[in-house]
Amino acid sequence: MTEFLQQVLNGVSLGSIYALIALGYTMVYGVIQLINFAHGEILMIGTFSAFFALTVLDTNIAAAVLLAVAASVILGILVERIAYKPLRKSSRLASLITAIGISLLLQNSGLLVFGTEFRAFPRVIPNVHYKFFDGAVTLTGYQILIFVTTILMMLILQYIVMRTRVGKAMRAVSWDKDAAALMGINVDNIITVTFAIGSAFAAVAGVLLGLYYNTVHPLMGLMPGLKAFVAAVLGGIGLIPGAFAGGFLLGITEAMVSGYWSTELRDPFVFLILILILIIKPTGLLGKDEKEKV
Questions:
Q1: Dihedral sign of CA atoms 232, 253, 18, 226 in order
Q2: Strands annotated E in 152-245
Q3: Residues 125-149: pLDDT tens digits?
């Protein structure tokens, strides 16, 4: 029982990071039906920005997070304006291929600029350990930080989408871009704001990922980005609660496979889940089938 509880705690921590990254996928897809496969690389740039702020500029963690958010937001806006905006009226396949191309471009640019070595992310926050059941179950300060940050970020995003004028405009654009434009909404600006918010979430997730694993490297966003995409599809891509639920379910499942089976099988198992969910319920756990008239 204690081992099971420990794996659940590990899975919740990992799932919190997946959920935070998946929120970026969900926002972009919900507004323009684009899967931004460069999202993991935007996370990587944010993490490296925080890393250099802490090691080179010698700032505190708050300033490092702000710099990471700024760098990721700028990169996200540039990617949207340069790569995606010209293809807005093109086929989804063209946008998908472009997203994959941008992802590969950023990965290799990161390898060229930062090198191939793994670097230790500074442990600027004390990682306190709390032990339960005579030390059989351990809860760390980083796990609490990750979980609380994810909950707060999700609530902030929910408030922005449901309670603000920008959020109302996002929902209008997601329903019908042409009708939103006729109502005076600047569709291009709203899409840019959506990318900016999603990129900011990726930056925060990157800093948490760096703290949790204590490493940073140019390909660090590849696998978490793909798994967060699986989480978004699992919960229902385009739905904020779906990204949240999918992230936690995927994180707990991965922890269980690692703890009770093999760490080598956790990645294949994640993509097996993607295949099964696409076969059984393509709209995700919280998604609903929508019929379109032709």
A1: negative
A2: 215-216
A3: 877 888 887 777 888 888 899 999 9
